[in-house]
Automatic annotation (TrEMBL):
UniProt keyword annotations, A-Z: Calcium, Glycosidase, Hydrolase, Signal
Signal peptide: 1-22
Domain annotation Glycoside hydrolase family 2 catalytic: ranges: 294-512
Requisite cofactors: Ca(2+)
Catalytic activity: Hydrolysis of terminal non-reducing beta-D-galactose residues in beta-D-galactosides
InterPro entries: B-gal_small/dom_5, Bact_Beta-galactosidase, Beta-gal/glucu_dom_sf, Gal_mutarotase_sf_dom, Galactose-bd-like_sf, GH, GH-type_carb-bd, Glyco_hydro_2
EC identifiers of the protein: 3.2.1.23
Protein name according to UniProt: beta-galactosidase
Domain Beta galactosidase small chain/, residue spans: 749-866
Family the entry assigns: Belongs to the glycosyl hydrolase 2 family.
Pfam families: Bgal_small_N (PF02929), Glyco_hydro_2 (PF00703), Glyco_hydro_2_C (PF02836), Glyco_hydro_2_N (PF02837)
SUPFAM superfamilies (UniProt xref): (Trans)glycosidases, beta-Galactosidase/glucuronidase domain, Galactose mutarotase-like, Galactose-binding domain-like
Length: 941
C-alpha cells in the first residue's frame, strides 16, 4: 500500500511537470549555446579550406574559424580583392518526443550568415532567410516525425543573392564570415500560445503591453510582477484588456517599484498568462523588464526618468579572435563588466544587433544601448527586405530597458523610407537616429575635431552626441584627447556625450596562416583593449576622465588644508551613497623587496551631493602627514566596485630621494686629461668624458662596461659650446661644459643681463655621479626641452621606477596613471599589433623620482631625479606601419634615454594631435624666462 502511494505521488508529480510545460514554452537546443559550448553537425563546404567533402563542424561557429572556406575583410571590395562566395551544407539528426504532437514546434535561428535555406526531413521549412544578423524562425509542426528521428538540413550561402544585403552587410569595414554562428533551438509551445509580447514599463509604474496571439480560445490575460529573485511583487487585479484581431492589449500600474537606470539597474519579471473564457491558463510567458522613461526633448537634451543624461559610451562589435562573431554569455558579461569598469554608461551596437545575452548583460549590469540596423555605408535599398529586417530587429529586442534609441544604419547607410518602420513594431516608440548625420532632433556627426564644438551652424540647436569620436588606432585616440573633449561635452548644454571608436581590436585567428592574429592592417587595430581583452593605457585614462566622482586637480604642499573640491557626475546616485578611503604611504628604494608602507588609513566622509552638484570633502591629516611620500584616495561605488584611485605626491623628488643616496663612503679619486679624454678614477670606478664637449663617453665599474654614454645632449638649447673645465675640490671632481652667453631677455640687445646654458658632472669619490643641468628657458616651446643619453636597446632587460605608471603617457593622455613603484620587463610591443603585450615598455613616463634600469648583462644602473615634473623617455617605441593621419609620434629626442620637461601629444586615425584640443598643441607654455630649466640627477652604478 505504501509503495502504491509513492507511485501515485510520483505519477501526479510527473503529470504536473508535463502540465506546466504544456502551459509554458520549452526550449531545446539543437546546437550548442555559444563559442564554448558547441555541438558537432555534419558539414560540407563548397570551396576553400577543407572543401568538397563531408566532415564535421561545431555549431554555432563561423566556418572560417573551424578551418573551412575563405577569409574576407569587408573592405576587400575596395582593394578589388576576390570576394569568396562559398556555401556550406549542414545536416543534423534530432529526436522528437511523440507527446510533442499535441504542441506547436518552431525552429529558431539566432543568426546565420547570410542566406539560409532550411529543410526538415527534406521539405522546405519556409522561404530562404536573408540577412546575417537577425533572428528568424519557422513553424515546423507539420514537417516533424513524432516519436522518431528527424533530419535538419541547412544550406548557407556566405554572400546573399540579394545585392542590397551584400552592399549593406558585406561591403563593410569589419570581418565577414559564413555559417550558423549563433545558436539553433526548438521552441515547443502549447497549441494555444502567445506569439510574442511587447511591453512598455514607464518610470511611474504604468505598464502597457501587447500580447500577440492567433488563439481563437484566448479571451483575456492574467498578469503578475515578480522580482528577479522570484518573489511576487504584485498580482494585478485592475487590468484593462482590449482584444483586437491578433492581439490583446493590456494596461495597469505597478506600485512602489524601483526604476531602471545604468547606476541602479533594477529589473523585474512580468508574467503574462493567456486565459480562455473559463479562466483556464492556455500559455504563460515571463519577460524581464525595467521601469524607465526615455525622452528626447527638442533643443534640450536626452532624459531618462526625468534626468538629463550624457552618454559616456563606446562602440562594440560582437567578436572574439578564435570564434569570430560567435560569442558566449560569459564573454558578454566579461565585456560589459570591462565597459562598466571604465566608468562608461553607454554602448552603441556596431554595426548590427548583438546576441541576446549581450543585451541581457546591459540590462542587468546597467548600460544605455543604441541598437543598430546593420548597414555600413550603403543602406538596404531593397525596401522590402529592409522592412522585414527591421521587424526582426525590433520584435526581438523591444523589451530590453537598456535600449534607448534605434539606429537606422551607419554613416549614410540609412534608407529614409525605413525610418517609420521602427515605430510600427516598438510599443515604446523610441526615437530613430541617423548615425553621422543631422536628423530630426539630433546631430551625431562623426569625428569632429575639438575646435568644431562651437557649432556655429544651422544645426547648433540640435542635441549633439557623436556616435563615433576619437577614432582609436594603435596608441592614438580613445584616451588621447578625451580630457579636452569631455570638458567641452560636459559643459555644453546641448551636448549629450558621445561614443568612442571602439572597444576591442578586431583581430581574427587565421586558420589558413598558421593561427596568426590578423587585424587586416590598420582596419581592425582600433580598440581600447586587444583582441583578447588586453588593456591598453587608454583604458585607465578613460576610467579617470569618466569617473562619476570628479575631483578637481590638486597639489599637496606644506600648507595643504586637506580639502578637495568634488563634483557628483552621477545621474541617479547621491555622492554619499559611495565610499572613499585615504591612505598615506611611504615608498622604499630601488633595491628594497617591499615597495610600499602604509603610514595611516582612514575613511573619507563624502558630502551628500545630489547628481550634478558640487561641494567639498576633507581628508584627515595624521600627525606626521608631511613624512608621507604620497596620498591615495580610493572611491568605491554602491555595488562595491572601485571607481578610481587618485594619487598625490606629498614630497618633492628632492625630498623623497634625500635618504636614498649615501655619499659617506670615501676613497681615492683623481683625474687625467689626455687625447681629448678626461678620465676620472675612483677605487672601483672609471669614468671617461670628452674634453671637447663634456659628454660622458664610458663607464667602467670593477672593470665592467656600463654602456651609458654620449650625454647629456642638451635638448632645446641652441647655444654653441664655449669651454669645458675640470676642477677638483672636497674629494670630488667637477667637469663643467659652458655654452655661449646670451642676452637674458630673448634677443633684446640693450639688455645687460646674460644667461648661459651649462651642465656640471660631479664625480664623487665613492663612484656616485651627480649631474646638474641648466638650459635657458623660453615662454613658448615646440621642441623637446631636457637632456638625452645613449644606451643600447639590446642591453635593456627591464626597469623599476618610482613615478606614474605602469603605462606611458602623452601630453594629451596624462590621466589614468598612478604614482607608485612600478616594474616592467622589456618588450618591443607596438600597441594594436600582434603580440598585444601591455604595458608597452618604451615611451614617456611622468613624475619621475628614480629609475633602476636592469641590464641584460648585469650592466644596469639607477638614476635619481631631484627635479619636479620631469619625464623619463625610455628608448624609442616601434612605429606602426600605417598609422593614418595622426596615430603615431615619430619624432623622438636624440639618443635612447632622456629626461625631459615636455612631451608630445598623440593623434587619432583621422586627425593630428593638434586638432584634439589644447593638450594636443605642439606649443607648450613654459613661461618663466627669468629662470633656467634645471635638471638634477644622481647616477648610481
Amino acid at each position: 500500500m505504501k509503495f502504491k502511494s509513492i507511485i501515485r505521488i510520483v505519477a501526479l508529480f510527473l503529470l504536473t511537470i508535463y502540465t506546466v510545460q504544456g502551459q509554458t514554452t520549452h526550449k531545446r537546443y539543437l546546437s550548442g549555446t555559444g563559442k564554448d559550448n558547441t555541438v558537432a553537425w555534419d558539414f560540407y563546404c563548397s570551396d576553400g579550406m577543407e572543401s568538397k567533402k563531408w566532415t564535421k563542424i561545431e555549431v554555432p561557429s563561423c566556418w572560417e574559424l573551424q578551418g573551412f572556406g575563405n577569409y574576407n575583410y569587408g573592405r576587400d571590395y575596395k582593394a578589388k580583392k576576390e570576394y569568396h562566395n562559398e556555401f556550406g551544407i549542414y545536416k543534423h539528426d534530432f529526436f522528437v518526443d511523440k507527446n510533442w504532437k499535441k504542441n506547436e514546434v518552431k525552429i529558431v535561428f539566432e543568426g546565420v550568415m547570410t542566406d539560409a535555406e532550411v529543410k526538415i526531413n527534406g521539405k522546405l521549412a519556409g522561404e530562404i532567410h536573408q540577412g546575417a544578423f537577425y533572428e528568424f524562425k519557422y513553424n515546423i509542426s507539420k514537417l516533424l516525425k513524432y516519436g522518431a528521428k528527424n533530419q535538419l538540413e541547412v544550406k548557407v550561402h556566405k554572400m546573399s543573392s540579394n545585392e542590397s544585403i551584400n552592399a549593406a552587410e558585406r561591403n563593410t569595414d569589419f570581418w565577414i564570415f559564413g555559417g550558423i554562428y549563433r545558436p539553433v533551438y526548438l521552441e515547443v509551445l502549447p497549441k494555444q500560445f502567445i506569439e510574442r509580447v511587447a511591453i512598455d514599463a514607464q518610470a511611474n509604474g504604468n505598464i502597457v503591453a501587447d500580447v500577440f496571439t492567433t488563439s481563437k480560445k484566448a479571451t483575456s490575460v492574467k498578469v503578475k510582477l515578480f522580482g528577479v529573485n522570484g518573489k511576487l511583487v504584485q498580482d494585478f487585479s485592475d487590468l484593462k484588456v482590449e482584444k483586437t484581431e491578433g492581439k490583446l492589449s493590456l494596461s495597469t500600474k505597478a506600485n512602489n517599484i524601483k526604476t531602471w537606470n545604468p547606476e541602479k539597474p533594477n529589473l523585474y519579471k512580468l508574467q503574462i498568462s493567456l486565459l480562455d473564457k473559463k479562466g483556464n491558463e492556455l500559455h504563460t510567458v515571463s519577460k524581464r523588464i525595467g521601469f524607465r522613461t526615455v525622452e528626447i526633448r527638442e533643443s534640450d537634451g536626452i532624459y531618462v526618468n526625468g534626468q538629463q543624461i550624457k552618454f559616456k559610451g563606446v562602440n562594440h562589435h560582437s567578436f572574439y579572435p578564435n570564434s569570430g562573431r560567435t560569442t558566449s554569455k560569459a564573454l558578454s558579461i566579461e565585456h560589459t563588466k570591462m565597459i562598466k569598469d571604465m566608468n562608461m554608461n553607454a554602448i552603441r551596437m556596431s554595426h548590427y544587433p548583438p546576441d541576446v545575452h549581450f543585451l541581457e548583460a546591459c540590462d542587468s549590469l546597467g548600460l544605455f544601448v543604441l541598437d543598430e540596423l546593420c548597414t555600413w555605408h550603403v543602406p538596404y535599398l531593397d525596401t522590402k527586405v529592409g522592412k522585414k529586417l527591421i521587424k526582426e530587429l525590433v520584435v526581438r529586442d523591444v523589451n530590453h530597458p537598456s535600449i534607448l534609441i534605434w539606429d537606422n544604419g551607419n554613416e549614410s547607410g540609412w534608407n529614409s523610407k525605413l525610418d517609420e518602420e521602427f515605430a510600427k513594431w516598438d510599443i515604446q516608440k523610441r526615437e530613430v537616429i541617423h548615425p553621422w548625420n543631422v536628423y530630426k532632433k539630433t546631430n551625431t556627426m562623426h569625428y569632429p575635431d575639438y575646435y568644431k564644438f562651437a557649432f556655429d551652424s544651422p544645426s547648433k540647436d540640435k542635441i549633439y552626441f557623436p556616435t563615433e569620436f576619437l577614432h582609436g588606432l594603435y596608441d592614438g585616440g580613445h584616451g588621447a584627447g578625451l580630457d579636452d573633449y569631455w570638458k567641452q561635452m560636459w559643459n555644453m548644454p546641448l551636448a549629450a556625450g558621445g561614443f568612442l571608436w571602439d572597444f576591442a581590436d578586431e583581430g581574427v585567428v587565421r586558420t589558413d596562416k598558421g593561427g596568426i592574429i590578423d587585424t587586416d592592417g590598420n582596419h581592425g587595430a582600433d580598440g581600447i583593449v586587444g583582441p583578447y581583452g588586453e588593456k591598453e593605457a587608454s583604458y585607465f585614462t578613460i576610467k579617470e576622465v569618466w569617473s562619476p566622482i570628479y575631483i578637481a586637480d590638486r597639489y599637496i604642499r606644506d600648507d595643504f588644508s586637506g580639502v578637495f573640491n568634488v563634483e557628483n557626475r552621477y545621474h541617479f546616485t547621491d555622492l554619499d551613497e559611495c565610499s572613499m578611503t585615504a591612505k598615506w604611504v611611504n615608498f622604499n628604494g630601488p633595491d628594497d623587496a617591499i615597495d610600499i608602507k602604509i603610514l595611516a588609513e582612514s575613511k573619507v566622509v563624502l558630502p551628500k551631493l545630489a547628481p550634478l552638484e558640487k561641494g567639498k570633502f576633507t581628508v584627515n591629516k595624521p600627525e606626521k602627514w608631511k613624512s608621507a611620500d604620497a596620498l591615495y584616495l580610493t572611491a568605491t561605488d554602491i555595488h562595491g566596485n572601485e571607481i578610481f584611485t587618485w594619487t598625490y605626491p606629498v614630497k618633492t623628488p628632492k625630498q623623497l630621494n634625500s635618504d636614498k643616496i649615501s655619499y659617506t663612503k670615501n676613497g681615492n679619486i683623481k683625474s687625467i686629461t689626455s687625447d681629448n679624454v678626461i678620465t676620472v678614477n675612483t677605487s672601483d670606478s672609471q669614468f671617461k668624458f670628452s674634453a671637447k664637449t663634456g659628454l660622458l663617453k664610458e663607464v667602467l665599474i670593477n672593470g665592467k662596461v656600463i654602456p651609458l654614454k654620449d650625454g647629456p645632449i642638451l635638448l632645446g638649447g641652441k647655444s654653441k659650446l664655449e669651454d669645458v673645465k675640470v676642477t677638483s675640490k672636497n674629494n670630488k671632481i667637477e667637469i663643467t661644459a659652458f655654452f655661449e652667453k646670451k642676452h637674458k631677455y630673448y634677443d633684446w640687445k640693450e639688455s645687460k643681463e646674460f644667461t648661459q646654458d651649462f651642465f656640471t658632472w660631479t664625480v664623487n669619490s665613492n663612484g656616485i655621479l651627480d649631474l646638474h643641468v641648466e638650459i635657458k628657458n623660453k615662454k613658448i616651446v615646440e621642441e623637446y626641452f631636457g637632456i638625452s643619453f645613449s644606451f643600447p636597446e639590446e642591453e635593456v632587460k627591464g626597469m623599476k621606477w618610482l613615478g606614474d605608471g605602469p603605462y606611458r603617457v602623452w601630453s594629451n593622455r596624462m590621466k589614468g596613471t598612478q604614482f607608485k613603484v612600478w616594474e616592467n620587463d622589456y618588450n618591443d610591443s607596438a600597441t594594436g599589433e600582434p603580440g598585444f603585450v601591455y604595458p608597452e615598455f618604451k615611451g614617456f613616463f611622468s613624475s619621475l623620482n628614480w629609475v633602476k634600469l636592469k641590464g641584460n648583462n648585469a650592466n644596469g644602473f639607477t638614476v635619481y631625479c631631484h627635479s619636479d615634473l620631469t619625464f623619463l623617455r625610455m628608448l624609442t617605441p616601434k612605429q606602426p606601419a600605417d598609422f593614418g593621419r595622426g596615430a603615431a609620434v615619430n619624432k623622438f629626442p636624440k639618443g635612447d634615454i632622456s629626461f625631459v620637461k615636455n612631451i608630445p601629444a598623440m593623434g587619432t586615425k583621422f586627425m593630428e594631435a593638434s586638432q584634439s584640443g589644447p593638450q594636443g598643441s605642439l606649443k607648450k607654455y613654459f613661461g618663466n624666462v627669468d629662470e633656467p630649466i634645471v635638471i638634477d640627477l644622481t647616477f648610481e652604478f
